[in-house]
Specification:
The protein is mainly β and 891 residues long. It has 5 helices and 52 strands. It has a domain of 102 residues: Immunoglobulins (Immunoglobulin-like), CATH 2.60.40. The strands form 7 sheets. The chain has a 26-stranded antiparallel barrel. A 6-stranded mixed beta sheet has the order 11-12-18-19-16-17, with helices on both faces. Strands 1, 4, 7 and 8 form a 4-stranded mixed beta sheet that branches. The protein starts with a helix and ends with a strand.
Length: 891
């Protein structure tokens, strides 16, 4: 009996010893139904031998060490989601246990039929500002743009641009994928707001940043829309048909159908009222783009998931645009010795362009461990234009007229631009947590062919107004520019600690340009050798980098250094000129972010980039497309090196709803490629302004902005205060003398969103902008332009079926030169009748620009030039528009 007891004890003890010897490592990721990681969730592992509790990190990743049994249960919970229980039965001896990605379903709570939702308007994360759509009150049949207008820190301007935290949104994605190529207006005006769960404003560092977490370089600001994950089947769409006076019309439609793993969308648009590709009939934009535009457009978007790992998505877009543009430009060119060239130029341009863009993506994703994406793209564009212009030029010295010029130019231009591209991305996550390798290849090859016929008559006058020279110039120019770009990068990450990794990186970049320029006398079809050239050049860089990256729950930083040898080589085959320039850039890398809570964040980033000169700046022949402004390249130019520092601070107060977004930036450039504008005196006192190029230092830029949102009276009134300032120290050469143009631009905006109830919406705003320019030449005074813009828009639900709306803009400009001066008052208004079930149908009578004063004016500061421009826009017209909105979603 004693022997039997001893044997049993030995067996039990050996089993215990074996259990204590073997330790298992368990890891996995937790996601919501769109595939985005859920941070801060509780993961509880329980078994007969273990009870371990951990939290997921900001990527949704969790890991549990020293687990004694491969048989266990995971219990996962997080506020706002349904709890999940997962049983796991593993094999003994398999020490590494990888749990497939787990998904949590969103959950709402009902109490006595009242929906209880959080009041937190936004959540601040490291590189993302996240807005929950359910926390914003929207009217029936609202679209994405209606939701965006309510989000703190986001501004939609009259030109259709979206500004988030002071930066323009470059594209909008839906669930991380492009929707009709990522076109901002198409997404805003066609995706129903009730399909949206979240709006995410992201500092996007590309695919490398997404897979590796490496925030290298300067980010782009994008928006990602996350739809409700439980809506797996349905359709949405809209159709517009309108007729107006003076032959105005608009016919457009968009339809999108999705069913679990397949989604297809199509759109079409025909209009001559300057509407965009999206074709929304509800916008009260002030005439759209410059000129009068006829648009025909078509596109489709498709996404399909073939199995657990393989999917594809892409789009095709076609557009035909015909435009008639009339513009006036008042230009002042400043030179030393109190010499001033003043130009007044009027032009009329008629253009007709076609554009085809096809892009596709084939994606293989094996549980985020192995990822491959292959993205071919093809585009083709063609544009023909006819330009008729008249130029009056006066040369002044000490404010006295020396001579003048009258020039009439007729120009016809034809342009073809085919482009093909291929992008391949591959990423592999090793079993060791944090170890990762990322590779990317980009290839683009395109040809830009331009043919121009220029007929110019030039009459030169002396100071007394007597004709001194009459000249006729007729030339035929053909430019063919072939461009090949190849880049490849490899990034390897090796973990040092749980949150710290070492990254080794290599980037190879090669750009090759071949420019073939041929100039002929139009009458004799005879080649002009002095204006013709065949020029080829290439720019090659090899960048090697080493960086230490840390990503904790609150702190994240990167410290590194990169070494970049550069080689710029070129050859003018016609003139037997060769260049070979070798450079070396040693650039530090530094970034830091601090996110103490979901209500505050601070960020700092330093980035550097090298930019080669363009072929126009390099080719050693003269371009006389405009006889008064010939351009001659410089084959000895160096590459520019830009250094940029960015600071940002974001804050949100949960109790008051106040938000504050701020940023500061500074940029310095070495070996900046600048224009050297030279007065060239010809016989008979003829003067032209020739542009040459050179490298100089001294240029820098400073900027800052802020956006504050203050909700009042229970969010029935929201006050938005926005401001920005930029200081540009522009350096250039004028008659070989270095001059500095100091340009200060500051703008302040106050706007309110007033929504006292469900029947009235009112949005008044006021904006003041100051543009001040001064030059280092003492003989010239400061040039100052100030602008006041008073705006108001709103809508009033007169009855359950009738809506009255309007938008008013009044501009006050002070400082524009010549006939460019204008202070337009623009009023748009409409009356709408809604009908059909759910108010899906609407009939709208609209009046645009009732005072017929719509025009566009702007100022451009370039080198030693100040240019004020005025362009025509679509004026007063009336339209009756029928709109139908349909959508249906199923779980």
């Amino acid at each position: 009996m004693k022997v039997f007891v001893i044997l049993i004890a030995l067996l039990l003890s050996s089993r215990c010893l074996n259990a204590q010897t073997i330790r298992y490592f368990v890891r996995g990721t937790l996601q919501d139904t769109s595939g985005t990681g859920i941070s801060g969730a509780t993961v509880l592992l329980t078994s007969d031998f273990d009870s371990v509790l951990v939290k997921t990190n900001d990527k949704g990743f969790y890991s549990l060490k020293d687990i004694t049994s491969p048989v266990f249960k995971l219990t996962i919970s997080n506020l706002g989601y349904q709890s999940l229980v997962k049983d796991h039965i593993g094999e003994e001896g398999m020490f590494y246990i990888e749990i497939e990605p787990l998904q949590l379903q969103a959950q709402s709570y009902e109490l006595n039929q009242i929906l209880i939702t959080g009041k937190q308007l936004l959540v601040i994360k490291k590189d993302t500002i996240e807005y929950q759509s359910r926390n914003y009150k929207l009217r029936e049949n609202a679209y994405t743009e209606d939701l965006l207008r309510q989000l703190p820190g986001i501004i939609l301007n009259d030109d259709g641009d979206v500004i988030a935290q002071g930066k323009q949104i470059s594209k909008i994605t839906v669930n991380g994928r492009d929707f009709f190529g990522g076109d901002v207006e198409t997404v805003m005006k066609n995706i129903p707001a009730n399909l949206i769960e979240k709006i995410q404003v992201i500092n996007d560092y590309g695919d490398q940043g997404q897979f590796t977490g490496s925030a290298t370089g300067r980010s782009q600001k994008i928006i990602n829309i996350k739809t409700w994950a439980n809506l797996r089947k349905g359709y949405f769409g809209n159709a517009n048909a309108g007729l107006g006076n003076e032959g105005r019309y608009q016919v457009s439609a968009l339809a999108n159908y999705f069913n679990n793993n397949r989604e297809t969308g199509v759109y079409g648009n025909l209009n001559n009222n300057n509407s965009s590709l999206s074709g929304s009939g509800y916008a009260l934009k002030n005439g759209g783009d410059n000129g009068l535009t006829n648009l025909n457009a078509f596109g489709f978007n498709h996404r399909e998931k073939y199995n657990k790992y393989l999917s594809s998505f892409g789009s095709y877009n076609y557009s035909n645009t015909r435009n008639e543009l009339f513009s006036e430009t008042f230009r002042q060119n400043i030179y030393p010795n109190n010499t001033l060239i003043v130009n007044y130029d009027t032009s009329r341009v008629t253009s007709n362009g076609y554009n085809h863009v096809f892009q596709w993506n084939i994606e293989y994703d094996r549980n985020k461990e192995d990822y491959i994406q292959i993205s071919p793209s093809v585009s083709f564009s063609k544009r023909n234009s006819i330009t008729n212009s008249n130029l009056i030029q006066n040369k002044l010295t000490n404010s006295y007229l020396i001579d003048s010029l009258r020039q009439q130019t007729n120009e016809s231009t034809s342009n073809l631009n085919p482009l093909i591209g291929l992008r391949v991305v591959a990423n592999h996550r090793f079993k060791k947590p944090g170890r990762n390798v990322y590779t990317e290849l980009n290839i683009k090859n395109g040809v830009n062919t331009t043919e121009q016929r220029v007929d110019a008559r030039l009459n030169f006058y002396d100071r007394s107004g007597n004709l001194s020279l009459d000249s006729l110039l007729r030339t035929f120019l053909k430019n063919e520019n072939e461009n090949l770009n190849i880049s490849a990068k490899v990034s390897y990450l090796e973990p040092i600690t749980t949150n710290t990794r070492l990254e080794f990186g290599y980037v190879y970049s090669y750009s090759e340009f071949l420019n073939d320029r041929e100039a002929n006398w139009a009458d004799m079809i005879k080649r002009i050798d002095s204006l013709s050239n065949r020029y080829t050049y290439s720019f090659r860089t090899n960048l090697v980098s080493l960086a230490l990256r840390h990503s904790g729950s609150k702190h994240a930083y990167s410290i590194g250094i990169s070494v970049q040898p550069t080689l710029l080589s070129g050859e003018s085959i016609s003139n037997s000129i060769r260049i070979n320039r070798i450079g070396l850039n040693i650039v530090p890398e530094l970034s830091y972010s601090y996110t103490p809570s979901s209500e505050k964040s601070f960020g700092f980033n330093y980035a550097a980039s090298s930019n080669p000169p363009s072929y126009l700046q390099l080719q050693p022949v003269t371009d006389v497309t405009n006889p008064q402004y010939p351009i001659t390249g410089n084959p000895t130019l160096k590459s520019e090196l830009w250094h940029t520092v960015d600071f940002s601070y974001n804050s949100f107060n949960f109790d008051t709803g106040n938000t504050l977004f701020t940023s500061l930036s500074a940029s310095v450039v070495q070996d900046q490629v600048v224009a050297n504008t030279v007065l060239v005196y010809h016989p008979d006192n003829v003067v032209t302004q020739e542009t040459l190029f050179d490298n100089i230092n001294g240029g820098f830029q400073l900027g800052g902005l802020y956006n504050a949102s203050l909700p009042l009276v229970g969010r029935r009134i929201i006050l938005d205060i926005n401001g920005n300032v930029s200081y540009n120290n522009n350096v250039s050469l004028s008659n070989y003398v270095k001059i500095t143009g100091k340009n200060l631009i500051t703008s302040q905006n106050f706007r309110m969103q007033i929504n006292p109830g469900g029947k009235l919406e009112l949005n008044p705003s006021v904006t003041y902008t100051l543009n001040n320019t001064s030059y280092s030449l003492d003989e010239y005074e400061k040039n100052e332009l100030s602008t006041w813009l008073l705006s108001a828009s709103g809508r009033w639900n007169v009855s359950p079926s009738f809506i009255l709306g309007s938008a008013l803009d009044k501009n006050f400009y002070n400082g524009f030169a010549g006939s460019v001066k204008t202070n337009p008052l623009i009023l748009n208004t409409y009356l709408e009748y809604q009908f059909l079930k759910g108010k899906k149908g609407a009939l709208r009578f609209t009046g645009f620009d009732l005072f017929d004063q719509n025009t566009n004016v702007q100022r451009l500061i370039l080198n030693n030039s100040i240019m004020d421009n005025r362009s025509n826009r679509l004026g007063r017209y009336f339209m009756v528009l029928f709109t139908l909105n349909v959508n249906k979603f199923e779980t």
